[in-house]
Design a protein that fits this description.
The protein is α/β, with parallel strands linked by helices. The chain has a single domain, classed as HUPs (Rossmann fold), CATH 3.40.50. It has five helices and five strands; from the N terminus they run E-H-E-H-E-H-E-H-H-E. Helix 3 packs across helix 5.
Length: 147
């Protein structure tokens, strides 16, 4: 069925459901797992009246986010290992999460991407878009969306 599954997480509660499903599926298929968390850059506003933040502070915040992401995917790897699933913990930096997910799936030879649907509806979905929707639209790899 599947030999290598990528699970994308952002650490949210809904994302944890996708992680649990991916681990269970990988165990059932005897597949390897790639746990990925994409770390975005700190958003910088160039609008008048925006608060200017020191470059060193931005680097500190981004390093903290990267450390948290690393801890998150390492914890996923430990949980998966306890269920007999060989897991690679990966973090990536990108301002376009969907592109990073697709690139990681290709780089690691994954034949399935598992992601959570964040359930935005109506105007917020239209305005904000959805990383999961972008992956569904642009990935050549199969995608499983967990609600």
């Amino acid at each position: 069925m599947y030999s290598r599954i990528l699970v994308a997480t952002d650490g949210s509660e809904l994302s944890q459901k996708a992680v649990a499903s991916a681990i269970d599926l990988a165990a059932a298929c005897k597949a390897d797992l790639v746990a990925l968390q994409v770390v975005p850059p700190y958003p910088i506003s160039y609008f008048e009246g925006g608060i200017a933040i020191d470059g060193a502070e931005i680097q500190r915040i981004e390093a903290l986010w990267a450390d948290n992401a690393k801890s998150n995917v390492d914890a996923i790897a430990q949980t998966a290992l306890a269920k007999g699933v060989k897991t690679q913990a990966v973090t990536s930096r990108s301002d376009v999460v969907s592109n990073a997910v697709i690139a990681a799936a290709q780089k690691h030879g994954c034949d399935l991407i598992v992601m959570a649907s964040h359930g935005r509806r109506g105007l917020s979905r239209l305005l904000l878009g959805s990383e999961t929707q972008q992956v569904l639209t642009h990935a050549t790899t199969a995608v499983l969306v967990v609600r």
